[in-house]
Specification:
This protein has helices at about 5-15, 25-30, 65-70, 100-110, 125-135, 150-155, 170-180, 195, 200, 250, 265-270, 280-295, 305-320, 325-330, 335-350; strands at about 20-25, 50, 55, 115-120, 140-145, 155-160, 165-170, 180-185, 210, 215, 225-230, 255-260. The protein is of the alpha/beta class and about 375 residues long. β9 and β10 form a beta hairpin. The N and C termini lie far apart (about 95 Å).
Amino acid sequence: MNAKQLQFINLVEQKFGKNYVITKQEIIELVRNKEVNLTWPSWFTTEEYRVGRGKYRLPSQVVDNSNIVIENIVPMRKPVQENVANLIPEKDPNFVSWGFYSDLKNIVKSKMFYPVFIFGESGFGKNMMVEQVCADLKRELIRFNFSPETDIVSLVGGPSLENGNIVFNDGPVIQAMKRGAVLFLDEFAKGHPGNMLILNSILEGKSYLNPHTGEYVEAVEGFNVIAASNSSGRGEDTGRFLEQILDTSLLERFPITVIQEPPTEKIQVKILSKYLDDLDFTEKLVKWATVIKKTFDNGGIDELISIRRLVHIAKAYKIFSSKIKAIELCTNRFDVNTRDSFVDLYKKIDANIEFDEEGNEVVQEPEVEKVPDYI
């Protein structure tokens, strides 16, 4: 309320009391009183305060709320980041480089802004390749996984209430720009296409104007964007990945697109040898996975065995010491018919497996070295 409104309320309260229902005639008499110097309160004689024909209820006398609100508005600020975690990935001693690894390493090492889009079947090393390139070069990596619910705030950040203050929390995109980090956008084609167009200008290497804070964010040298997906961004009709059809303008901003092919049999043996001491089992697993992959490529089946699943089987074998049990446990994620056909195929490939009368694999117990009595 302004000063004249407060003056009118004060005069009525002094004369009639608080919350008084004043008549139009009483208002006229007050205005005519030259001693009070009051003008006609047109703001008061409205439907807001009207309680009857020619009658108006006086609002409670309050201080000027508009001034209070203005004084208590806390300008949006950026939170102080303390003890920021080290974002450099750790080196995996079991990692084996292959495929596009050396080329991607050259891109990241150059510190040029050169976005890369990688797509291929799940479980063939896209994520591990990006992570280990950054680990090798000691570069910070910020990974963000897309989903259909991913929105603009998820990407660039947004306001939140912190200790009574409105602060703006930077999203992964802004954090990577400010730190000169590698931004890894995983499951890229699972995001809603309309919410991803905000990345267009950023993928051109341009600055970003934050509409919430007015901050103009310039990317630090070394900032780059790597996106990974199971499809090329044109959707897929198999139902295996539920990928979206991405906007052509978004895909066009990636200078290069890499198709992540499965590693060769030689590389697969090398990878599995990091987890298995049994070379014969390792080679037979790779042969088994290769036959399945060929059948998959020819449209004979809808599933395949990735290098990731081979590693799962190798680890299960070290726990249970049973080849068939390890394969069964790690293929139970498929439908029953597919699982059974995969297990049967391996039994044909590995003729050295012995089975008891009930059809169970005969597992050789590991030999335990006898401890001398005198120890």
